[in-house]
Amino acid sequence: MKLRRPLVAGNWKMNGLKASVAEFTRIVEGCDGPLAAEVDLMVCPPATLLSAFVAAAAGSDVAIGGQDCHAKPCGAHTGDIAAEMLADAGARAVIVGHSERRCDHGETDAQVRAKAEAARRAGLVAIVCVGETRAEREAGQALDIVRGQLAGSVPDGATGAGLIVAYEPVWAIGTGLTPTNEDIAEVHAALRAALNARFGSEGEAIRLLYGGSVKAENAGEILAVPDVDGALCGGASLKAEAFLAIARSYL
Ligand SMILES: O=C(CO)COP(=O)(O)O
């Protein structure tokens, strides 16, 4: 048995209306026995669709996640959502520290770490995102940047059951550009080494996803890169066929 079970997760970002539940239902229907035997599937819809997706996924092997959470369990934080609320709605995981949150909302590593701790408090898996910008990669800083983000954003005591790390180079998100397989392998090896050094055997159990312009056409080779335990897909997760095709790379 593989040490880490593959996971193909979809981040719907700020996309989807009630009518989109039908498309998500096609993902649920496509997650048949043979696929579910090989790979975990998860979809992270916008908060407005969370309950509808949980209902549509009931009885299936497709998990639902949130896209962000507040660090506190409740209180005067207009517009924010607590990890406990996501769990209460049926989510099993939450993405924290996505580069769009780090960029659009100025989230720091310390804030991302507090959100990951909130996820743990609420019984959710935290999917912590890290990734360098184009300028940082061109300056040869990619490894230092992701190592720094990992160290600052991942709480102490992380476990394979409670944490997933997603490497998402900012310049690869939504651009159709991807790093070379060698570059992905280099970053994932660095992340794996850092997790193992900090968490020992638990670090070895933490899954590392790659995200950034993953599609059916490139999924096979990206998912075969050493230390890539799955994908975090944006655009391709909005269409059931495209998303399922990525997951079927594991068959
Ligand atoms: O940001 C991403 C997932 O979180 C990746 O988005 P794309 O797959 O659209 O590049």
TrEMBL record:
PROSITE patterns found in the cross-reference section: TIM_1, TIM_2
Residues bound to substrate: 11-13, 174, 213, 234-235
EC number, as in UniProt: 5.3.1.1
Pfam families associated with the record: TIM
InterPro entries: Aldolase_TIM, TIM_sf, TrioseP_Isoase_bac/euk, Triosephosphate_isomerase, Triosephosphate_isomerase_AS
This protein's GO CC annotations: cytosol
Pathway: Carbohydrate biosynthesis; gluconeogenesis; Carbohydrate degradation; glycolysis; D-glyceraldehyde 3-phosphate from glycerone phosphate: step 1/1; Carbohydrate metabolism; erythritol degradation
GO biological process, one term: glycerol catabolic process
Catalysis performed (reactions): D-glyceraldehyde 3-phosphate = dihydroxyacetone phosphate; L-erythrulose 1-phosphate = D-erythrulose 4-phosphate
Keywords: Cytoplasm, Gluconeogenesis, Glycolysis, Isomerase
Residue positions of the active site: 98 (electrophile), 168 (proton acceptor)
Annotated GO MF terms: triose-phosphate isomerase activity
Superkingdom of the organism of origin: Bacteria
Protein localization: Cytoplasm
Broadest EC class assigned to this enzyme: isomerase
Similarity-based family: Belongs to the triosephosphate isomerase family.
Function: Involved in the gluconeogenesis. Catalyzes stereospecifically the conversion of dihydroxyacetone phosphate (DHAP) to D-glyceraldehyde-3-phosphate (G3P).
Assembly and interaction partners: Homodimer.
Record HAMAP family: TIM_B
Entry protein name: Triosephosphate isomerase
Source organism of the structure: Ancylobacter dichloromethanicus
Gene this protein is translated from: tpiA
